[in-house]
Automatic annotation (TrEMBL):
InterPro entries recorded: Alkaline_phosphatase_core_sf (IPR017850), OpgB/LTA_synthase_biosynth (IPR050448), Sulfatase_N (IPR000917), YejM-like (IPR012159), YejM_N (IPR024588)
Gene Ontology CC: plasma membrane
Keywords: Cell membrane, Hydrolase, Membrane, Transmembrane, Transmembrane helix
Domain Inner membrane protein YejM N-terminal: 12-249
Name of a matching Pfam family: DUF3413
Protein name stated in the entry: Sulfatase-like hydrolase/transferase
Domain of life: Bacteria
Main location: membrane
Location(s) in or outside the cell: Cell membrane
PANTHER family (alphabetical): LIPOTEICHOIC ACID SYNTHASE (PTHR47371), PHOSPHOGLYCEROL TRANSFERASE I (PTHR47371:SF3)
Keyword Hydrolase: yes
Example of a GO MF term: hydrolase activity
Organism: Candidatus Accumulibacter cognatus
């Protein structure tokens, strides 16, 4: 006769599980969380109360199902269902906390909208470029955490069945009262810390997943407590109806339209444009327009590619995607009867460029190689296909071809003949790699991958030269964003807005233009404003973008702007300042100096660029208007 676990055994299971979760949550803290007695007490209270909150998705359905099953005779199905539910839910809480801890350790942010979008959008997981060993390690971790919960469950229930009733079991009411006391205490402490700008607790709160800040500045002000200025938690934008462009375009198509070859390279940071690493692009840039201090419009592929086609801040991605609004640049090319061959070695579904940049493109013109061979081989195949398209195109019409290289995305892949940097890590396992000790061989993988991409770019340039097409073709080479290798304590991108993660090479070949280098700041946002006049658009750039024409004699930028999923950053010569946009949870402004180190006097730095910040605030809604 099957026997349903007693209520005491379920309590014991959740108490043990709570201890395991407490260990997980404690791992998020660091030494700063125990710097003083007050901060240590807050850390203890927060760790305990958030352990309970993280367990709620298992506690509530678990107790409800157990109570329901107690009202009817026990069956094997009921007993098994309860075990699977409790083991499965608590196991997945462990998995999510482990995954969040890995993400936070690598990138400095928790599971958020960006991560969820990556997981649930087709092609998102594949875009991570994880090796087989990484996938195997991740699978083993998941199995181990589920096994831990299975062992905990069977120990708790079997022990209860085989032993006499305990004289002492914790009463749920007392446990809840203790947790509530911890929760209220940490809420009050955080609220006054926010009001007084007491940074040790504010910074410590950022380490907890899904931390929800509580503020009561008005009450604190009445009590004479003052600190952080209003608005320190970022800005919130209500997306209105798109007003893009601001005025209808006036277009006089050129008599001799130029072809466009657009080459975007995943994670290609500024210092890869080097005569040793990328010799072919380096030599070519000496005869073209070289952008010596160039910034992407974002620290992710999504925002980087978006900004180079739209010339807008990354926050416009969301209303553009919702409206399926293509960039005006692509609209003009279609109106002028361009033929297209669009290629990627990843996919057009993640990020969903088929809903934004290429929203109105014929699917027959979009060629994605996202499966099968390693990225460097897919890059090579795509280049073969592009060169074939150039040779077989309709020569009576201009053409536009686009290529997104994936080889320089982690895991950083390349053929043996492209090895120029040794030693390199043979098997790059994201979960088992020692980033502090192995960063040099990891970066060498990246350098070798960039060297191979340079070879492929060289093939395109040579092909155009041999076909005598250079005088009729614009060539654009950009990175979508940069890539950091622990220069500022992070690996990869999407975490910060320092130069390593946001600055990319920029090379533009425009027929009839003299070779030169722009040493001042330039931005992805300037690309549409540079190309549209060449397509006969007579409107000033301000009608359709937030960029400037790189070919204008008076071109000058005081700063660039880059966006993340829910942050936007001012990137200037003296400071880099980022702040949250429509962000939830514990968030704050980040202020860096010209060398990407934290600034001590943050308010003074923000005051110095106040005019630029006002301009950025206005630009965030420049191309939208209130609904109604």
């Amino acid at each position: 006769m099957p026997q349903l676990p007693t209520r005491d055994s379920i309590k014991r299971f959740f108490l043990l599980t709570g201890l395991w979760v407490l260990l997980h949550v404690s791992a998020f803290t660091n030494d700063q969380g125990y710097s003083t007695l007050a901060v240590a007490l807050w850390t203890l209270a927060t760790t305990v109360s958030y352990t309970f909150l993280y367990l709620l998705p298992a506690l509530i359905p678990g107790y409800l199902l157990h109570r329901l099953l107690l009202q009817r005779p026990a069956t094997r199905v009921g007993v098994a269902t309860l075990a699977l539910l409790l083991i499965g839910l608590t196991g997945m809480i462990h998995v999510l906390l482990f995954a969040d801890r890995v993400i936070y350790g690598m990138y400095g942010f928790h599971i958020n909208g960006f991560v969820l979008d990556l997981v649930f959008t087709p092609g998102g997981i594949a875009s991570l470029g994880a090796s087989r060993s990484t996938e195997l390690t991740a699978s083993l971790v998941v199995i181990a955490l589920l096994a831990l919960q299975a062992a905990t469950y069977f120990w708790a229930t079997r022990r209860a069945a085989q032993s006499r009733p305990s004289r002492w079991t914790p009463r749920a009411g007392w446990v809840l009262l203790a947790i509530l006391s911890f929760a209220v205490g940490e809420r009050v402490a955080y609220g006054f810390s926010a009001a007084a700008n007491y940074q040790p607790i504010l910074f410590a709160s950022e380490r907890y997943p899904l931390y929800l800040p509580t503020t009561f500045r008005k009450l604190a002000s009445r009590l004479g407590i003052s600190g952080a200025p209003e608005g320190a938690g970022g800005v919130h934008i209500k997306n209105g109806v798109l007003s893009y462009p601001l005025l209808p375009l006036r277009v006089e198509p050129p008599a001799r339209p130029l072809n466009i070859v657009w080459l975007a390279v995943e994670s290609l940071r500024y210092d890869m444009l080097d005569r040793t690493i990328m010799p072919q692009l380096w030599d070519f840039s000496g005869n073209a327009l070289r952008l010596g201090n160039h910034y992407s419009g974002g620290n992710t592929t999504q925002m980087g590619i978006f900004s180079m086609f739209y010339g807008l801040y990354g926050n416009y991605w969301f209303p553009m995607q919702a409206a399926r609004r293509s960039p005006l640049l692509m609209d003009v090319l279609q109106q002028q009867n361009y033929q297209f061959s669009l290629h990627t070695s990843q996919s057009f579904t993640y990020p969903p460029f088929q809903e934004t940049v290429f929203a109105n493109m014929n699917p027959a013109d979009m060629h994605a190689l996202s499966d099968g061979p390693p990225p460097w081989q897919r890059d090579r195949q795509n280049i073969d296909d592009i060169l074939r398209f150039i040779d077989t195109r309709d020569k009576t019409r201009p053409f536009m071809t686009y290529m997104f290289f994936e080889g320089t995305h982690a895991n950083y892949t390349f053929p043996p003949e492209s090895v120029i940097a040794r030693p390199y890590l043979e098997d790059f396992n994201y979960l088992s790699a020692d980033f502090a000790q192995q960063m040099v061989p990891i970066k060498n993988r990246y350098i070798n991958a960039a060297h191979h991409v340079d070879h492929l770019i060289g093939r395109v340039i040579t092909h155009l030269r041999e076909r005598k097409l250079l005088d009729d073709t614009i060539i654009i080479v950009l990175g979508d964003h940069g890539e950091e290798f622990m220069e500022r304590k992070r690996w990869g991108h999407a975490a910060d807005f320092n130069r390593f993660q946001t600055s990319t090479p920029g090379v533009l070949w425009i027929p009839g233009q003299q070779a030169r280098t722009i040493s001042g700041i330039s931005s992805h946002l300037d690309i549409p404003a540079t190309l549209m006049p060449l397509l006969g658009v007579r409107n000033p750039p301000a009608d359709y973008s937030l960029g400037q024409n790189l070919l204008a004699p008076d071109f000058h930028r005081d700063y660039a702007v880059a966006a993340g999923w829910n942050r936007i950053a001012y990137l200037g010569e003296k400071f880099k300042i980022s702040f949250p946009v429509n962000a939830a949870g514990a968030v704050r402004d980040e202020v860096l100096d010209e060398d990407d180190h934290p600034v001590s006097d943050r308010e003074r730095a923000k005051n110095e660029i106040q005019a630029a910040m006002v301009e950025m605030m206005n630009n965030l809604t420049r191309f939208s208007r209130p609904k109604g």
